[in-house]
What does this fold into?
Amino acid sequence: MTFLGRIRRLVQRTLIGALVVGFLVVGGTAFRVWQVAREDDRTHADMAVVLGAAQYNGVPSEVLEARLEHARRLYEQGVVNYIATTGGRQPGDNFTEGQAGRIWLESNGVPTDRILEIGEGTDTLGSIQALAQKARAKSLKTAVIVSDPWHSLRARTMAEDEGLEAWASPTRSGPNVQTRETQFFYIRRETGALLYYHLMKAPVDAFDGIVL
It folds into this structure.
């Protein structure tokens, strides 16, 4: 075999190897997103962390309400001592997502002194960083992440990176978990967002048109 032939074969093998590794990394990450989405860990924790979603002038969207309802049940069952509502204000909003969550919980029987309102952050990472700072000030160290199933792994990973001991109890209701098409969309979306976070330690500014 000529020298050029050996170089060509080496390049081909390198490319094939890179493709195989890439497939394994992406496939393995997608499997973990799916696997963690199926978990419902109700081990006692200091707080349930409700990840923010859209609100309309202080009224939670269906997605956010489903998360809040799930967190309320965890509190009533004694799984958590506090509920943290997270999420900042989008341009033009009168309320933060954290405020809308607090208002809903108060109107549904959760005592005000059991709610931690974190009205900061325009993406998951920003909200969790603000949460971690407030949690440290109150000596809260453990958290149950309450979000949609497919969001659980990325949110849990971010919480752990911020020094919290975290696990997930996702909601099983709401428009984001109702159809197979929706499930496949969010698994694909979260796989890409989680890989980007592992690589850059930053949120994706927009992935499929949705702020992450």
The first helix runs from residue 3 to 37.
